[in-house]
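NUDIX domain-containing protein: structure tokens wanted.
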Amino acid sequence: MKKVVPVILRHKNQGIDILAFHHPLAGTQLVKGTVEQAEQYEQAAIRELFEESGLIARPNPKFLGNLILRFNQQDWYFYLCEVKGELAETWQHHCQDGGGLDFRFFWYCLDQQPDDHWHETFKEALSFLRNSLTSS
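Answer:
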């Protein structure tokens, strides 16, 4: 099963922040979702970003690479998305997935080591992003 991870970054004096959120049932995460049948990956990234965060991405997100997770062998495709305007430090979005849940969004510094609130899959994803963004 192919997954897309729409990535929103902001550059601060102390480094690069990535958009993350607290899921009320599953801990701290990045936005991620399944590519639907016959859906282009870029479109899946834009759709998932909107469904989970309410944010509208500009067309043509930049492909950052893919990662086959050690944890469960899922294939994740990362896309750098851009949105219009400045985003708040934190906000909440009511996502319809899972019967409707409130996700609390915040900025996470990529230089930090993720704590135990992050699932192993997202720790692996953060490491992949840290390496791919700093090597380019």
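DSSP finds two helices and nine strands in the chain. The CA atoms of residues 65 and 78 lie 6 Å apart.

Cheers.
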